[in-house]
Amino acid sequence: MNDVVQDWLTVPDIAKKLGISVVAVRRLIEDRELIAVRRGERNVLSVPADFVDGAGPVPALKGTFSVLADGGFSDEEIIDWLYAADPSWPGGATTAMGSIQAGFKTEVRRRAMEEL
Q1: pLDDT tens-digit profile of 21-71?
Q2: Which end of the chain has fewer surrounding CB within 10 Å, N or C?
Q3: What is the mean pLDDT of the chain?
Q4: Which residues neighbour 83 within 8 Å (Cβ) at sequence distance 6 or greater?
């Protein structure tokens, strides 16, 4: 997992970026608006930077998180799936995350459902 994601944000980083409290960020994680994993030497709770835009969590991700989690994927496996290289994604993307960023959330969710 650490190899597939280029940039990570910690909970305080997200709070600062969005202008909200750390408690509010933790609530976003609890509500599955964001998914986070512990990483690094200090086991810091971190979120892929792509999961957050200037307005908050990327809205197209929540449904994809739900589909994959319902299929038994752990948060680490969800992140791996979103960033796994596959040149067949639409929009010129090479990952599911890239396709979501290009506006193809329906196709991403369709393929996520096929994983079940």
Answers
A1: 999 999 999 999 999 999 988 999 999 999 999 899 999 999 999 999 999
A2: C
A3: 94
A4: 4, 5, 48, 95, 96, 97
Which two structure tokens, joined as six digits, stand for 30? 């609890």
Global model pTM greater than 0.90? yes
Q: What's the rounded Cα separation, in Å, for the pair 106 and 82? A: 14
Q: Are 67 and 106 in contact (CB under 8 A)?
A: no
Residue with tokens 């990327």: 58
**40: exposed, middle or buried (Cβ count in 10 Å: 0-12, 13-18, 19+):** exposed
One-letter amino acid for residue 82 of the chain:
L
CB 100 within 8 Å of CB 64 = yes
Residue type, 40: G
The angle, 0 to 180 degrees and rounded to 10, between the axes of the packed helices 22-30 and 11-18 is 110
Residue 102 is encoded by which pair of tokens? 């290009």
Rounded Cα distance between 87 and 98, Å, is 11
